[in-house]
């Protein structure tokens, strides 16, 4: 496991795939090895293989939360929305306060253009994980699309408080302020976003 993890963090992360596979052949129930391999395959832009690794794990442990959340996330990016939603809603039936599953379900709904439902999921995720800048960003985006500009502004300002170095948050906040006819404030957000993007 240690050897595979070191290879995964090194200059040739693909060389870690085989050691993880060998470990899983010896210990098929090894949760961390399976998760690390699936994350690595996803990072190597082999999402279908990542889904296969997680599916094999779920055949052994059907309620393994981390497998379900990660598979739901990957399936969502593959636009296999129905399967992704089944995985994420299964987690939330088992653990209603599971913030990563709430976030991933929100992201899935947001990708499908269901911004009202997505915003509700992001708000629930923040109840259980209140300092997540990424969740505030997507909540701000969903509220902006829904037309709730004050809500979008508040969410994006909170995202910046939590993570002041994300250029795209400043850019989106600039767009929201533009829509609120606060053009000077908007220009300042665009300027800060451009500065951060150059870093």
> Span between N and C termini?
35 Å
Q: Give the amount of beta strand, in percent.
A: under 5%
Major β-sheet profile: none
> How would the global form be characterised?
globular
The Cα radius of gyration reads 19 Å
Give the topology string: H per helix, E per strand: HHHHHHHHHHHH
What's the β-strand tally? Answer: 0
Q: Which stretches are poorly predicted, pLDDT < 50 over at least 5 residues?
A: none
Please, what is the average pLDDT? 96
Q: What is the helix content?
A: over 70%
Provide a count of the helices: 12
Structure commentary:
The protein is mainly alpha-helical. It is 78% helix and 0% strand. It contains 12 helices and no strands. The protein has helices at 2-9, 17-26, 31-43, 47-60, 65-77, 81-94, 99-111, 115-128, 133-146, 149-162, 167-179, 183-198. The mean pLDDT is 96.
Key features of this structure:
199 residues; mainly alpha; 0% strand
What does the secondary structure layout of this molecule look like, with pairings?
Elements: H1 2-9, H2 17-26, H3 31-43, H4 47-60, H5 65-77, H6 81-94, H7 99-111, H8 115-128, H9 133-146, H10 149-162, H11 167-179, H12 183-198
In short:
Helix content is 78%, strand content 0%. The two termini are 35 Å apart.
């Amino acid at each position: 496991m240690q050897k595979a993890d070191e290879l995964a963090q090194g200059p040739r992360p693909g060389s870690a795939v085989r050691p993880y596979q060998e470990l899983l052949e010896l210990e098929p129930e090894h949760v961390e090895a399976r998760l690390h391999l699936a994350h690595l395959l996803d990072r190597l832009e082999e999402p279908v293989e990542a889904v296969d690794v997680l599916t094999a794990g779920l055949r052994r442990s059907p309620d393994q939360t981390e497998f379900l959340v990660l598979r739901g996330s990957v399936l969502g990016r593959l636009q296999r929305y129905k399967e992704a939603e089944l995985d994420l809603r299964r987690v939330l039936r088992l653990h209603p306060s599971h913030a990563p599953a709430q976030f991933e379900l929100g992201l899935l709904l947001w990708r499908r253009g269901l911004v009202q439902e997505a915003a509700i999921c992001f708000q629930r995720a923040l109840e259980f994980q209140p300092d997540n800048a990424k969740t505030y960003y997507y909540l701000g985006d969903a509220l902006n699309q829904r037309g709730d500009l004050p809500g979008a502004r508040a969410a994006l300002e909170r995202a910046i408080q939590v993570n002041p170095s994300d250029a795209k948050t400043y850019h989106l906040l600039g767009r929201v302020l533009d829509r609120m006819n606060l053009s000077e404030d908007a220009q300042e957000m665009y300027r800060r976003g451009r500065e951060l993007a150059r870093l």
